[in-house]
Amino acid sequence: MSRREAEPAPGGVRGGRPGVAVDAVDLGRTYDLGGTSVAALRGVSLTIAAGDYVAVVGPSGSGKSTLMHLLGGLDRPTSGRLAIGGRDVATLDAGELATLRNETIGFVFQSFHLLPRTSAVDNVALPLVYRGIGGRRRRTMAAAMLGRVGLGHRLDHRPNQLSGGEQQRVAIARALVTDPVLLLADEPTGNLDSVTGESVLGLLEDLNASSGVALVLVTHDREVAARARRQIVMRDGVVVPPADDPDTPTVVPAARGGPEIVDPAPSAEPRRASGSDSGHPFGGSGGATGATERRGEIPAAGKRCGGSIGAGPGGGS
Question: Residue spans with biased composition (Low complexity) (predicted)?
């Protein structure tokens, strides 16, 4: 029985609504840039539930990266309420927030962020150090996770001995080794060619389906976003409202007979800066949990149903 089945994550969903990992209400985030206040997020509300697969999409400056930092516990909102794993982040000190990240959230980044002189298995085991798990057990757990992503034969290889696709698989294994509730993937295919990127997305989708980890994919690429069950479109720090809103964005039919997607209507507001801030993801690394959007939700635009985990061409270059 997995940790998620055996017991809720410490401070986990038991303190909030059942099955809800992230609950955000009217989030705002304002940055002081040289004496000027810049609103990166303005009144964003959403709920992330276990097992969902959501894409957060928008142009540069739309606020999607700021939202990811808040959902990942890497930053705190200026206003509104954000509960992660049933715990209000406003009530947590820095150490408690780091523990929450380690036990609840997993991160996958565009640039991999692997330790260059460290083997694949030890890179994956790194988040377990913060759990106080002994070295032998850490390596066993990390090796098992690398096997799940198709790299059981690459345990002792360093990053410079791996292809880009293999390095991203190591990063995915590192994000999931702690059995998290929520997996945040920020442009995970941005540094990969199209074939390898397809394979990495397929792996993330397979893991989402098989483990129940919620997958939140942050991207500016509409083709990537269209694979998710839902798309949340952001512009100028707000979630674009749904089709029945008076200010609805334009619905544009997808090419080649595909499903419709929503294209945000042009905004008269100046583009806001999206910010980043403190925190280290491995002060935790962590897990995954799905998302249900209260506002601005876009129906599914098609989801890939993949084969076995680790299968496909993307394990390589």
Answer: 239-255
Domain presence at residue 134: yes
Quote the number of domains for the chain: 1
| pLDDT per position as a tens digit, 212-238 | 888 999 998 889 999 999 888 999 999
**Percent over 90 (pLDDT), the chain:** 53
Q: Decide if 96 is inside a domain.
A: yes
Q: Is 3 exposed, middle or buried (0-12, 13-18, 19+ CB in 10 A)?
A: middle
In a domain, 90, yes or no: yes
- Within-domain flag for 119: yes
| Per-residue H/E/C for the chain | CCHHHHCCCCCCHHHCCCCEEEEEEEEEEEEEECCEEEEEEEEEEEEEECCCEEEEECCCCCCHHHHHHHHCCCCCCCEEEEEECCEEHHHCCHHHHHHHHHHHEEEECCCCCCCCCCCHHHHHHHHHHCCCCCHHHHHHHHHHHHHHCCCCCCCCCCHHHCCHHHHHHHHHHHHHCCCCCEEEEECCCCCCCHHHHHHHHHHHHHHHHHHCCEEEEEECCHHHHCCCCEEEEEECCEECCCCCCCCCCEEECCHHHCCCEEECCCCCCCCCCCCCCCCCCCCCCCCCCCCECCCCEECCCCCCCCCCCCCCHHHCC
CATH (domain of 189): 3.40.50.300
pLDDT tens digit sequence for 200-214: 999 999 999 988 888
